[in-house]
Amino acid sequence: MELGIVSGQSIREGESRMMWWNNTGWGAGSWLAMSVMMVLFWGGLIALSVWLVRRTRTSPPSDRGQSATDHPDQVLAERFARGEIDEAEFTRSRTILHPPSDRL
Fold it and tell me: What's the predicted TM-score (pTM) here?
């Protein structure tokens, strides 16, 4: 016995009017895949955020704005020019950096 026609389909007694996409459902595998994709999405979003924050953060300035690769003679000359060391200290430090080559 038919109860009526909905969208061109007849409805029989005991049938639901909802479509349910042909009652196929998603199954356990599809739900597992969807859960994994959600975790990957949020993990990737968090990782991207952390990377951007670290990338844009500026490094703290050094004591005098000098890099660690300055040549020792240059540093010594700058300290002497600023008056941090006197001539005797400059000469002694320069001798330590460049010992005489007349050793036998």
Answer: 0.36
